Structures are given as C-alpha cells and as structure tokens.
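Final report, Chapter 2: Outcomes

The project's central promise was a pipeline that accepts a single protein chain and returns its three-dimensional structure in a standardized token representation, suitable for archiving and comparison. That pipeline is now operational. To close this chapter, we reproduce one record exactly as it appears in the project archive, with the input sequence first and the structure output second.
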Amino acid sequence: MVTTLRSLVLGFILVMAGAVQAHAEVVLRYAEGGPNRGTRAAAVQFFADEVERLSGGDIKVDIHWGGALLKWSGVLDGVSAGSADLGTVLSSYEPQELKALGIGDIPLEYADPWVGMRAMYDLMTTEPQLKKSLAEQSLVYLSNFSTTGVQFECTAGNQILTVDDIKGKRIRATGTYTNVLADLGADTVSMTFGEVYQALDTGLVDCLASYFYTMKAYKTYEVVESVTRVDWGQLLGFAIVMNDFVWSDFDEKQQAILMQAGDNMIDHFSQLTIEDAGEVAKSLASGGFGKVVPVTDMAPEERQKILDATLKFRDSWIEDVNRRGMAGQQIWDHYIELLKKYQAQVDSKGYPWES
C-alpha cells in the first residue's frame, strides 16, 4: 500500500509538472529601432499589452527599445535569423527583400493613416503572393504603422506652394518621395531626422518633406517659417513582422491572438496619430509652440501635379513584382480597391472610435 501510495503521489507530481510546463508563459523578444516615446512607441506597447491580455498572460512580449537588440538596418536580418522573435521593419531599409511591403511606400492621394493601415492589413493578410514573398525572408506579417501624410516645412524665403517652387530647393526626403522631388527639380538631401534641426538652422537644407508628428518631436518649428499642408501619401511599408519558424510553433489559437492584437493596434494607433496631427497643426498656426508658423493648404491643382509625377513609380513597382513571378497589376488593383473601400467608410461613417 505504501508503495502504491508513493507511486500515486509521484504520478500526480509528474502530471502537475507537465501541466505547469504546458501552460508556462512564452516570452517573445521584440526588436524596436525607435525610442520608447511618442505615439508609435505607445502603439508598440499597446500591441504587446494586447498580446498578453488576449492570451490570458500565456504570451508576453519583451520590447527592446532604441535599437538595443537590433538597429533599424538590422531588424529584418535579425528577425529572419531568429535573433529576435518579432520586430518593426521598414521597406526603405531593405527595398528588395521587402518588395511586398514596398507597395505601401508609393505616394498616393490617400494620406489618412487609418485608411492606409487598414488597406495594408487586409492586403498583406489576404494576398497569397505577398505572404509568400515575406515567407521567403522567413517573415510573417502581423500589423502596420504609418508615418501619416507628407507636408513641406521650410525656412524663411523658401515656402513651397506650387510645383515650380520645388525647383532648386534643397529638400530632405526619404524613399520614393526623394525620387519624385528630384524629378520635379529639387536638390534632395539624405539624412536622419536627428540631423534635420541643425541642417535647417545652418541652411544646409531649405525644406523638409516631413510629418506633423516629427515637427513636434524634433522641434523643427523653432527653425522653420512655414508649413505647407500637402497630405501627400504616407509610408506604409512600415510593419510588425514575426519569425516564420516561431510563428509555426504556435497553434492556431495563439496565431489568431497575435493577429488580433495587430488588428486592434491599428485602430488605437490611428486615433493617436490623427488626433496628434490635428493638435500639432493647430499649435503651429496659433503660436502654441512659442511662435506662429503658418500652415497653408497646397492648391488642389498643384497637389495633383505632384501626384501625377508619382505614377511612373507605381508602374515600376508593378513591373518589378511581375519579374518576381507575382501578378503586379492584380495586386495593385486590389490595394486601390481596399484604399477606396476604407476611405468611403470614413467619409460615410467616420472612424470606429467615433461611433
């Protein structure tokens, strides 16, 4: 009887140990190149909190901020190789490897962050060819960020209100925006946002192709005299991706939790960025930052000229993915349909958080 009792106790202990192990929490390492401040950082943290909430604490995300685990330029290779389980990538750093995400970096008339991110989420989670393209880099798409629309902020005497005003200006831009502005006659300059304040202050650049949130974050309003509201496209090749092998180790329920967290994050981040951009624009015009920086809308006909100059880069993307064995025009048409769908939803019903 004693032997039997000992066997039962030992068996119970082993069963309980197995149960504890089976329900042990999983901690995912997240590589984030940006610092832990601002609206996008809040969105990354929201994503991590949602993963933990939806999983009942079984899955946690350990965020490594400010490039502590992987620098911006190393996130793609790091997540692909498993140095991090997931992280934030930008297609502008790896345009060939992340050609699938690059569709979101082609400047269009759709500048609304919620519209753009919703369209990208649907596209990247439903288009088998784009999912396969990322899988070839050992990546799985989980969610999306947006830079919001591009605006022009300029130093004294350099205001851009027309396409002709772009000619000869020294303008800091990035990605396809750099190429479009160069085609329109700008002398484009490449530098990080950490360098733009001094570049404006010393006259190294005349204008920035930037965003309302960067104007506040980098205090460029102190060294510019005008902002032209163009609402020109947005960078959407800006995503949360996960290592494909780690993803494959999760069951369907766990995978659904990660995707739902990414879905939920888009609405949260959109609300933050849209409200923040509105407040920044008001503060610039009213002197809320200590000086008045007029914000002037670019005339629709001039904005359209800039949009027209982008068309060849759309064609180039389609041709490039065709060469990679994908149906470029079909994917592009699907993307535009999604952008129109979500723009129509905003126009008719407003944003989800407003209902």
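Archive annotation: Residues 150-234+277-315 form a domain with the D-Maltodextrin-Binding Protein; domain 2 fold (CATH 3.40.190.170).
This record, like all others produced under the grant, will remain available to the consortium after the project formally closes.
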